[in-house]
Specification:
Layout lengths: L1 H4 L3 E5 L2 H12 L5 E5 L4 H9 L7 E5 L4 H10 L2 E7 L11 H10 L3 E5 L4 H4 L9 E5 L13 E5 L1 H14 L5 H11 L2 H20 L6 E4 L20 E4 L1
Parallel strand pairs: 2-3, 2-4, 4-5, 5-6
Antiparallel strand pairs: 1-7, 6-7, 8-9
Keywords: Membrane, Pyridoxal phosphate, Transmembrane, Transmembrane helix
InterPro entries: CGS1/2, Cys/Met-Metab_PyrdxlP-dep_enz, Cys_met_metab_PP, PyrdxlP-dep_Trfase, PyrdxlP-dep_Trfase_major
Protein name: Cystathionine gamma-synthase, chloroplastic
């Protein structure tokens, strides 16, 4: 996984949700401030809204593409971390990772990307300036709907802190789940390439369909997300609403 993400280190854990909790618990100090987005995984948002305040941690929620709101949050708070999905689930909203990483680092904040919906085949957020990447390995990484797992990748300095928390709290990935994830990763590149191709064909078909249909796909010419989704963020993801 470290090779796929071009990371110094990776730790696998029992679920994607646990990966987010471990990352947040490690990187955001008591009394800190976190910025997140409206499209974040619902259970993660619930955790952040109900559990983090018990540690005196405050939060600002912005729309994924609202860079003015992000800059305002960075200017007016002692932000420890900006945490967001990109592309988001299910609306495929994308952020300019390189721009956001520069904004965060200029204010001393870390950037963590939930890259579950892209997989490391379509996006390598660390190469664009993100400090950490989390995945729900349950989805594309394992790929067979028969295992639950998660992982956290990044600089060894940061992942080592998460690993210490993980060793104390638990959330260990069981041996059979580890085997199933390794099995799935052997075909990850083939599966994602096929999924990309199928998604593009379906979106192109639906885009021209006579019924009222809205297609959200980053590589469609009409997509508002296209500007943030060229090389090296080569996604061909889709979401349609009939």
């Amino acid at each position: 996984m470290s090779a796929l993400e071009k990371a110094e280190s990776t730790v696998f854990v029992a679920s994607g949700m646990y990966a987010s909790v471990a990352m947040l618990s490690t990187l955001v100090p008591a009394g800190g401030h976190i910025v997140t987005t409206t499209d974040l995984y619902r259970k993660t948002r619930i955790y952040m809204e109900t559990e983090l305040p018990k540690r005196g941690i405050t939060m600002t929620v912005i729309r994924p593409a609202d860079m003015d709101a992000l800059q305002d949050a960075l200017d007016n708070n002692n932000v420890s971390l900006f945490f967001t999905e990109t592309p988001t689930n299910p609306f495929l909203r994308c952020i300019d990772i390189e721009l956001v990483s520069n904004m965060c680092h200029n204010k001393g904040a870390l950037l963590c990307i939930d890259s579950t919906f892209a997989s490391p085949i379509n996006q390598k957020a660390l190469t664009l300036g993100a400090d950490m990447v989390v995945h729900s390995a349950t989805k594309y990484i394992a790929g067979h709907n028969d295992v639950i797992g998660g992982c956290i990748s990044g600089r060894d300095e940061l992942v080592s802190k998460v690993r210490i928390y993980h060793h104390v709290v638990g959330g260990v990935l069981n041996p059979n789940a580890s085997y199933l994830i390794l099995r799935g990763m052997k075909t990850l590149h083939l599966r994602v390439q096929c999924q990309n191709s199928t998604a593009l064909r379906m979106a192109q078909f639906l885009e021209e369909h006579p019924k009222d249909c809205t297609c959200i796909l980053s590589w469609l010419a009409k997509s508002p997300r296209t500007s943030h989704c060229q090389e090296p963020n080569d996604w061909l993801w889709w979401c349609c609403q009939l």
